[in-house]
Amino acid sequence: MEINKAIISVKNLVKKYDDFIAVQDLSFEVYENEIFGLLGPNGAGKTTTLEIIETLRDKTSGEIIVDGLSVDKHANAIKQIIGVQLQAAGYYPNLNLIELIELFAGLYGADIKPMEMLEKVNLQDKAKAKYKALSGGQKQRFSIATTLINQPKIIFLDEPTTGLDPQARRNLWDLIVQIRDAGTTVVITTHYMDEAEQLCDRVAFVERGKIIAIDTPDNLIDQLVNSGFERKKEVKKANLEDVFINLTGKEWRE
Amino acid sequence: MNDGHSSSPLGAEGANSPTRTVRYSNTKATLALAKASFRSIMRSPSAVVFTLAFPLIFILVFGFLGNGGTRIDVGITPGSDINNPVVSMLGKTGMIRLVKDKSKEEFDKLLEKGNVDAMVDVHRKVNTAAYSVNVVYTSASRDKGGILKSVLNNLFYDKTLKPTVAEIKESTVTGREYKTIDFILPGQLGFSLLSTGVFGTAFVFLSLRQTLVIKRFFATPVKRSSIVIGEGIARIGFALIGALFIILIGHFFFSFTLVHGVVTVINMLLLATMGIIVFMGFGFIISGIAKSESMVPPISNIVTLPQFLLSGTFFSIEAFPTWLQPISRALPLTYLNDAMRKVAFEGMGLWDVKFQIMILLIWGIVIYAVAVKVFKWE
């Protein structure tokens, strides 16, 4: 990633609701083939920003270009090249995973083999299961499978690891890295800073609808340390999550 | 399950190819939705119960119960003496409804179909104070004819009447036998279409909206019209399969009359399609105004119950008090039921029931005009 070509560019994005400004004058770029993290507290405007880029929500003003396409003029063309995982979205009731994948293949006009999609996220054993019967981690992996059906250039994952146990979380990180390595750009939101640090190539901090910092995790940490910051407690070489993984093993149970 | 590192490339095979030559097909998307929705409906217990089980139970119950609460329609032959003690006594029994003011031809048709159970013609005998009573029964309504016969016999042995009546002449015309099932089945069919149209549509769209399924659809290139049409195809398909099932069970197990056989069935299914489309409009409206799933049944019942009771599902609306009849005649199910019965038993074509179809069409236009206003996507 020596040449950083922007695949998403957001300029001066503003989103106002009746009496409340969700996003004010927000600008950033996402580079091709990176994992980009949008970080920030609840209500900072992360989901709103994502949904505007995903063409699910109108913006008040600003300019958004996704792979050379404007959200104002080419919303449908954008939908064809992105994959979207929504926070807490459900799936069509009473259908099994294979049937759900078939449905999305029809909606995207994609010609794919449902079983191959499930294999990509290691859910081939659950092909005949209903979405409701899946564990938290399986649900998230299935959601990610639905984002890959149209072989997108960019996928958006909104808090995909919230509520998962450490093993399931690590398993999902591996999956997300594989997707990036296969050439897809990933935009992710999360509340876990260890996750962002490990997973993201670059992160942006959003606070009250504005970007307050954007850089690689390394650079941001270095900047803080250089400013004289010190942790109150001396850092050990491992943390409690390392203990957890060490004791319970990396193997993921479901 | 620890093999998270499969070597298969993920997702981006197409990302590197510069142009995607496959054109997006709205038809393909619509059909994919229809297929998914149809599968979902077939696995939903409530849909199957409302569309098939309930109507079949009612058909069973009424098919075996036969007629309760008899009321006999007796036509007064045109030209007959009306102001005579025989006719006024018949009117006082409470069981008999006198039908007047129809032409001979109209009466003949009604008699043949069993819509009128018998005809009475009363004349004063020449040069005497006595009356001659001529009664014509119909084989289309043998049981009611039998009841009328005993009523008449009772009357004529009544002391006040006896001296004035000289003779009773009786005869029977042959008509098609009109069975309880011929009345009950079209009504149950209408009820089945109404409940699957209203409840099914309302629940599906509300739950798809609330569980963000529709929002996820909007992240794909699918059009809104494809979502509505796909759902509609599935719902109509399911309702028609249910209707066909009910008709066939009725025909083969309860000898439901299908005058022109297959043609009649096709006409009934066409009517059923019109009915379900109108009723789905109610469902769209309810899905828009209901705030939660628990609000769907009460609002749906406001739409379905009055029609269930007042649209001639179980009883002919002519049996209702006169003040109630205008309400009955305002409801769309009344006209669907009416058209169904005319097509099934009287063997009419769709053109013959154009008035009923027109009323359904007007309802459809009104309902969908409202639905477009109140329907919510998010």
In short:
The complex is a heterodimer of chains A (254) and B (378). With 254 residues, chain A is an alpha/beta fold.
Task: Characterise this structure.
The complex is a heterodimer of chains A (254) and B (378). Chain A is built from nine helices and ten strands. Chain A is α/β, with parallel strands linked by helices and 254 residues long. Chain A has one domain: 3-Layer(aba) Sandwich (Rossmann fold). Chain B starts with 25 loop residues before the first helix and ends with a helix. In chain B, β4 (131-138), α5 and β5 (165-173) form a beta-alpha-beta unit. By secondary structure, chain B is an alpha/beta fold. In chain B, α2 runs parallel beside α8 (224-254) and α9 (262-289) packs antiparallel against α10. The chains are: A alpha/beta (254), B alpha/beta (378). At the A-B interface, α2, β6, α3 and α6 of A face α1 and α7 of B. Chain A: One of its GO terms (molecular function) is ATP hydrolysis activity. Chain A: Keywords: ATP-binding, Cell membrane, Membrane, Nodulation, Nucleotide-binding, Translocase, Transport. Chain A: Residues 8-233 form the ABC transporter domain.
Beta-sheet strand percentage of chain B?
5-15%
- Inertia-based shape of chain B: elongated
Strand order of the largest sheet of chain B: 2-1-3-4-5
- CATH architecture of chain A, by name, is 3-Layer(aba) Sandwich
Low-confidence stretches of chain B: 1-9, 11-21
Q: What pattern of helices and strands is seen along the backbone of chain B?
A: HHEHEHEEHEHHHHHHHH
Oligomer: heterodimer
Report helical residue fraction of chain A.
25-40%
* Average residue-wise pLDDT of chain B: 81
In CATH, what is the homologous superfamily of chain A? Answer: P-loop containing nucleotide triphosphate hydrolases
**What's the overall average pLDDT of chain A, rounded?**
91
The rounded Rg of chain A comes to 19 Å
Tally of structural domains of chain A = 1
Domain ABC transporter (chain A): 8-233
InterPro entries (chain A): AAA+_ATPase, ABC_transporter-like_ATP-bd, ABC_transporter-like_CS, ABC_transporter_ATP-binding, P-loop_NTPase
Keywords (chain A): ATP-binding, Cell membrane, Membrane, Nodulation, Nucleotide-binding, Translocase, Transport
Main location (chain A): membrane
